[in-house]
Amino acid sequence: MDHPVAGPAGFRRVIARWTQHARALKTETYAIYLACRDPRTPWYAKLFAACVVAYAFSPIDLIPDPIPILGYLDDLILIPLGVALAVRMIPAPVLAESRARARSTLQGRPTSRVAAAVIITIWVLVVGGILVGIYRLVRR
Known about the structure:
- By secondary structure, the chain is mostly helical.
- 76% of the residues lie in helices and 0% in strands.
- It has one domain.
- The chain is flat.
């Protein structure tokens, strides 16, 4: 009995499935972005969803991808989890309309320069804190 993923054909099926899931996540994230702009969405859902969307569309990750295993953790766990929670907070009619608009208008991946700036600021603060800590240790 062959393993369903064994061989090149199985590998292509797995890659095709992951690609399909990635596209669906991108569309869902864009739908959440559109729902954030809808006045019927509660403020707390807008706040949480805006954070998720900004991070998802940021060209810079909080955990850089070159870091083994942890680098892809945000892409594989944090973003889908954030999207799932945001979807639960947004009213169903708003989400349905936003999904329909997202499917019909999504072209390319939007980027968030503000989110990129926030992530760069976090990294600068982390590196600065480490440098200050090293300086204090060396100064003793």
